[in-house]
Amino acid sequence: MTFQEKSYFSFHETGQHQIYFNDWGPEDGNPVICVHGLTGNGYDFDFLAENLIEHGHRLIAVDLPGRGRSDFHSDPLLYNYDQYMRDLHELLVHLDLQAPESVDWLGVSLGGLLGIRLAALEHSPIKRLIINDVGPTVPQAALDFIYQVISQEYHFDTVKDLEQRMRATRGLTWGPVSDAQWHHMAEHNARATDDGRITYAYDPQIARIFENAPIGDVDLWESWQQITCPAMVIQGADSLLLTDDILDRMEELREFDLTVFEDCGHVPSLMAPDQIKAVRKWLA
After folding, report:
1. Which of 69, 162, 230, 262 is the most buried (most CB within 10 A)?
2. Domain span at 36
């Protein structure tokens, strides 16, 4: 199994910041860019990667700024769409994968919104698009709930305590996740604070953008309509973000392949065997 931790630098208004990513599989494998959700990181895709690299794929799973190992911004307003798009463009340039139709894209929630924007561009580098439980718009009630959750800071005595909270919250919507997967996710979603306690591995200041220009509170319907590459949309059957009404409108504008996972909300974890199999089969 080939795995490397790598990094590159991207520019912002007053300097540059370091961004880390996990690079799974052979360098000549079919490249799949994986972009996590709002509070996730590149390790969210580890179990998917282990399976897909056995089928000729190369997975590049990035930690967006303010998440995981990547730098946190001193100015929280840099956690915005335009900066994320610049960061991801720099990733593709760093990997020499910026040419048209060079990569497959798997975006979870926020990563899906960014994928919609990128796939709609002229000469887009995306040849196939997978978006996990998000559409071209996000209901206001869901945005309000997300802000309520991430605007609070959480502290734990141990990683095990953090894991227990993950099970009690994300466990309600992610679908089947094994004990080993929960342990793995807790270890890679934990960050030590200066006082020796544990918190989540994302910058709590990412919530600040919701007070000005919420991620998701952007109309991407025109972008969705402009996408010409094949697309797979994954929905958690109980999702509050990707509702049936949104799916119906998406279908009116263009064709795509829909996969719905029962007993999931926002978002299917892509760790369960049936979820991994669905992604693998579609990419095949």
Report:
1. 162
2. 3-138+219-283
